[in-house]
Design a protein that fits this description.
heterotrimer; A mainly alpha; B alpha/beta; C mainly alpha; A: mainly alpha; ABC transporter involved in vitamin B12 uptake, BtuC; 2 domains; 17 helices; globular; disordered N terminus; disordered C terminus; C: mainly alpha; two-stranded antiparallel ribbon
Chain lengths: ~375, ~375, ~290
């Protein structure tokens, strides 16, 4: 009995907030679409939001939780979109139900993308840091280059996808949000499991993790495959919304856009990724009409500033005092409680890295700015 | 939590920035379009936009359509399919009744796929890929189709009697490969041999290898856009290649890309000649220069003609209701424009349409230097 | 044969860019993603100044502007992150790259614009007509490579650079001003980028805000293939990549897949020999 009680009282909102957000969003979408309150552009915006969230959350697994920078996420999406939609074009003449076609193609697209994730995960075992980032970027470009030139996939014209979902009906939108919900539940469960802890352990210190008996090879590959699967699923959703599927969309610039979402939302912070993906997609959508001509450069500048400012603010020692002063808990006079430390979120200055690690371990001189206490306590010195 | 809060605040800020755009109802028919106003292809989008705006102003100044004003708006699609689709959705939300589709082929495919569902009439000024109007009763175009240009080019090259012919096309671009495929088929049919070279968007800036391979040709066929054509012309100079450069309507604008060092003769097929002395083109060029202080290109002329095609067809269909539904308007306009007696004397020549949506008009060859 | 010459010419440009990458990576231990965009800055500097003055002055302006941009970027964006993880620095570098592109687009528009540079003509070597720019690009590349090697090996600053590259902390203890050395590295790297931009324009006479992005990434690939941190490696990698690109372009079947083959080569090299062709193996210390 006592056991049961602790279990019940240990329900913590912040452990479940992500899928609750998604579930609320899903319910809202369903209500709004049946009340006919959504305009066409709302539907297309929400569709974009849905696949952006899937992309951002899955990239966050690789970047935020595993600690490897991948610049090829759009490549996996590309694989999913092309393969999934290619199959959908055949299936929809055989199967009547568009929903069933979508589900099958999502699985197939995701699995093929996952297979590519496996292939690119292999170098990830040997490469570290910057090298891996460049290898993934190269992979994304290779995929795009190949799909562009295969006549089966429409070549330069792009793959024309038979529209099986009417753009005036919200079917696709509702399915997209269900997929988002599934993604979040699966990710959340993964992170909170022993596997998730193994993954963050690899991020925090690969050698120590290895010493603890964690199968580093297995987990690295696993994360790449897992993230690639969801990127592929997002690609299929994208393809059903946007025809033709064009190679040009999946350039490394799009990978970087997803990265911007992850960085803005916070590395290793799923809730952050959801919010940032929504925000950035929305801003993009609004700016598409507002910023035309040379003003479109402002979008690039906004991205640039987000990337630079967020990273500098989180990392530069110069900003540490300001950061502590602006600390949320401090501002609201909340006491620091140790159990509220997010064990999965990666504080930037604590994400170590495969390169720096070797320096840290081999040199006895402590780096000038290394302040383990302050970093760990998150402003809990009051 | 700190991050969440800052995100929410940022979102709020942005939302408040853009609140306040209401919808007004007026006695006008809303013509929508999407096109690249940004990026590498932006010159096409801007030209079409300018040409169309000019036509709309002229029509409204002359009293509009049976007293109804026309309203034209182009959304930026950066020449991407995704943005064209969202552009379409926003335009429909804003009450688009009839349309110019999209400026570039890839975007227009996306636009057209959505427009079929709503039965929205569109006449694209410049999306020339064959698939854009194929099997779509609501889709029409002002420009030549890609395959037509390829076939035309073969005729011209055959007429000029060149001995050794080369061709460079962009394998990553649908416009270029569309023309090239038809060109290839037509050449094979006439049993004319030629040397083929291609390039790809990522490597499109350096043409030394391609030009080297075609150095000895009398003529090089360039079914590509003018920026690359300018670079190819310069590469020809560097390699000492004296071939005649012959292209399609994408070459319009190449004159600004080359300088005095380029001695190769450059010519291209186009329906629009800026130096034409015919009444309508001359009037259009003068009005365009007066309004925008620059010389119009073929895209501007296409945009201008597309608006006039819609206007004339609506006039022929005797549209008097400004609030007419898109689908109803589509049926009326479609009937009028495919009528045997309907023809438009526009800036790009005399045009007629059939049910396929393709436009018949006479091509011209323009020489640059 | 002419394909090989064209490849050498293109390869020499990649090599020049790769030299800059390798300098910065070797010493500051960071992947300067924005290096390609410094080339774009240099190209626009030439584009603007050439309109009013002569080529020599344009070159000087371009070099100065690039060096200043490089140093300012380093001071504002990278220096505060000296002790942060490479991941953070890389993301900032991507941000800087976007920033430079966006600024250029805001000022000059997103269209590519043609630029007229004096033609250098060509010379006859044996049976082959060789373009002079190919010879000059290669020559300057080789000269810079030798110069840089000597600079690093024989001067005080150069040796300080080596020390910083080995171990920042230890170098600082030995009295090396690490910040100054890294600043100088960036200035040199950016100067190389300015040179590269000139030769790039000789080959491809058109400027656009994204002009540096692809050559930048390919040059990075070249630097990695040659062995990052190794100055002769950058040269070898650059020329190799240029040759591969041109040979693939000249074979019709492979032509469309050129980009895939180049990047494929990078991945293969990374897998087979992660330190690159001429790289020096660093022992992983635990």
């Amino acid at each position: 009995m006592g056991n049961l009680k602790t279990k019940r009282s240990s329900f913590k909102l912040h452990h479940h907030i992500n899928w609750i957000i998604a579930a609320v969003a899903l319910v809202l979408v369903v209500i709004l679409s049946f009340a006919d309150a959504l305009g066409r552009s709302d539907v297309s915006l929400l569709n974009r939001v849905a696949y952006s969230i899937i992309l951002a959350v899955s990239l966050n697994l690789v970047v935020g939780f595993l600690g490897e920078l991948s610049l090829g996420h759009a490549g996996f999406m590309c694989v999913g979109a092309y393969i999934g939609c290619y199959i959908a074009n055949y299936l929809n003449s055989v199967i009547d139900s568009p929903v069933l076609v979508l589900i099958i193609t999502m699985f197939v697209g995701g699995l093929v993308a996952a297979f590519f994730g496996f292939i690119i995960g292999l170098p990830a075992l040997r490469l570290k840091g910057d090298y891996l980032a460049i290898a993934t970027l190269a992979f994304g470009e290779i995929v795009r280059n190949i799909f562009k030139n295969l006549p089966y996939f429409g070549g330069a014209k792009g793959l024309i996808v038979n529209k099986i979902f009417s753009s005036t009906k919200p079917t696709l939108l509702i399915i997209s949000f269900i997929v988002v919900l599934i993604t979040l539940v699966v990710t959340q469960n993964l992170i909170r499991s022993k596997h998730g802890r193994a993954i963050t352990a690899i991020r925090d210190n690969e050698i120590a993790a290895k010493a603890m008996g964690i199968n580093v090879t297995y987990y690295k590959l696993f994360v790449f495959v897992f993230a690639a699967f969801f990127a592929g699923v997002a690609g299929v959703l994208y393809g059903h919304q946007t025809t033709p599927v064009m190679y040009s969309f999946f350039s490394y610039n799009y990978s970087i856009e997803i990265l911007v979402m992850v960085v803005l939302g916070g590395m290793g912070n799923i809730t952050g990724s959801i919010l940032a993906a929504t925000l950035i997609t929305y801003v993009n959508f609004v700016l598409q009409n507002e910023l035309t001509g040379n003003l479109a450069a402002l979008k690039l500048l906004i991205y640039a500033i987000i990337l630079i400012v967020v990273v500098l603010f989180n990392n530069a020692p110069v900003f540490r005092p300001i950061k502590e002063k602006l600390n949320f808990r401090r501002l609201f006079g909340r006491k620091h409680s140790p159990e509220r430390i997010k064990d999965d979120a990666a504080a930037w200055d604590r994400v170590p890295t495969k390169i720096q690690m070797d320096e840290l371990l081999s040199v006895d001189v402590t780096p000038t700015n290394y302040e383990p206490d302050k970093g760990l306590k998150d402003g809990g010195d009051d | 939590m700190k991050k969440v809060l800052s995100l929410l605040l940022a979102a709020l800020l942005i939302v408040t920035c853009f609140v306040g755009c209401g919808k007004e109802t007026a006695n006008e028919i809303f013509i929508g379009a999407t096109g690249p106003l940004t990026g590498d292809a932006s010159s096409y989008g801007n030209s079409v936009n300018n040409g169309a705006m000019l036509a709309v102003e002229e029509i409204n100044a002359a009293g509009g359509l049976n007293g109804i004003n026309l309203k034209f708006e182009m959304k930026d699609d950066k020449a991407t399919a995704g943005d064209a689709a969202t552009g379409y959705d926003s335009l429909m939300d804003e009450g688009m009744q009839i349309s110019l589709g999209s400026v570039t082929s890839g975007s227009c495919e996306s636009f057209a796929a959505k427009s079929v569902e709503d039965n929205l009439f569109f006449i694209t000024p410049s999306a020339s890929a064959a698939n854009v109007i194929e099997n779509r009763p609501n889709a029409f175009r002002v420009c030549f189709g890609d395959p037509d240009q390829g076939v035309l080019a073969v005729d011209e090259l055959e007429k000029a009697g060149y001995k050794k012919i080369g061709a460079i096309y962009d394998s990553s671009d649908d416009y270029s490969s569309g023309i090239y495929e038809a060109f290839k088929a037509a050449m094979a049919e006439k049993k004319i041999t030629y040397i083929e070279q291609s390039f790809d968007a990522e490597n499109k800036k350096d043409f030394s290898t391609q030009v080297e391979a075609l150095k000895d040709c009398d003529a090089i066929f360039l079914p590509i856009y003018y920026t690359e054509a300018g670079l190819i012309a310069k590469a020809c100079v560097a390699k000492g290649c004296t071939a005649v450069l012959f292209g399609c309507d994408g070459l319009d604008g190449v004159a600004d890309q080359i300088d005095a060092t380029v001695t190769n003769k450059i010519s291209y097929i186009t329906p629009f000649d800026v130096n034409s002395t015919d009444e309508v083109p001359a009037k259009f060029v003068a009005a365009y220069k007066a309004k925008y202080n620059e010389t119009p290109d073929q895209f501007a002329a296409d945009g201008y003609d597309a608006i006039y095609a819609i206007y004339e067809a609506m006039k022929a269909a005797n549209i008097t209701d400004a609030d007419i539904e898109a689908s109803e308007l589509c049926e009326a306009v479609k009937k009028a424009i495919t009528d045997a007696s309907f023809k438009l004397d526009g800036a790009t020549g005399e045009m007629k349409w059939d049910a396929s949506g393709a436009c018949t008009k006479v091509p011209q060859i323009v020489e640059v230097n | 044969m002419s394909t090989i010459l064209d490849g050498l010419s293109l390869g020499a440009i990649y090599a020049l860019i790769a030299l800059g990458y390798t300098m910065v990576y070797g010493i500051a231990k960071m992947l300067n993603f924005a290096h390609g965009d410094i080339i774009m800055v240099g190209a626009y500097a030439i584009f603007v100044t050439l309109a009013s003055t002569n080529l020599l002055l344009a070159l000087v302006v371009s070099i100065l502007l690039c060096a200043v941009t490089g140093v300012v970027v380093e001071k504002l964006a990278y220096k505060p992150l000296r002790s942060a993880s490479p991941l953070a620095v890389l993301i900032t570098a991507i941000g800087v790259s976007y920033f430079l592109q966006g600024t250029a687009q805001l000022i000059f528009g997103s269209k590519s614009q043609p630029i007229t540079l004096p033609s250098l003509g060509s010379i006859q070597i044996g049976n082959f007509q060789v373009e002079l720019r190919t010879v000059i690009t290669l020559g300057v590349g080789a000269l810079l490579m030798v110069g840089l090697t000597l600079f690093v090996k024989c001067t005080r600053t150069g040796r300080a650079m080596l020390a910083v590259s080995e171990d920042k902390g230890a170098a600082q203890l030995m009295g090396v001003n690490v910040n100054r050395i890294i600043m100088i590295t960036f200035a040199i790297g950016s100067t190389l980028a300015a040179c590269a931009s000139f030769f790039y324009l000789l080959q491809i006479p058109s400027v656009s805000p994204t002009l540096g992005a692809m050559p930048g990434i390919k040059a990075f690939a070249a630097a990695v293939i040659g062995g990052i941190g190794s100055i002769p490696g950058a040269m070898v990698g650059g020329v190799l990549l240029g040759l591969v690109e041109k040979i693939c372009t000249s074979i019709p079947v492979l032509n469309p897949y050129t980009t895939a083959i180049e990047f494929g080569l990078l991945i293969v090299i990374l897998l087979v020999r992660p330190i690159g062709l001429l790289g020096v193996r660093r022992r992983e210390k635990v």
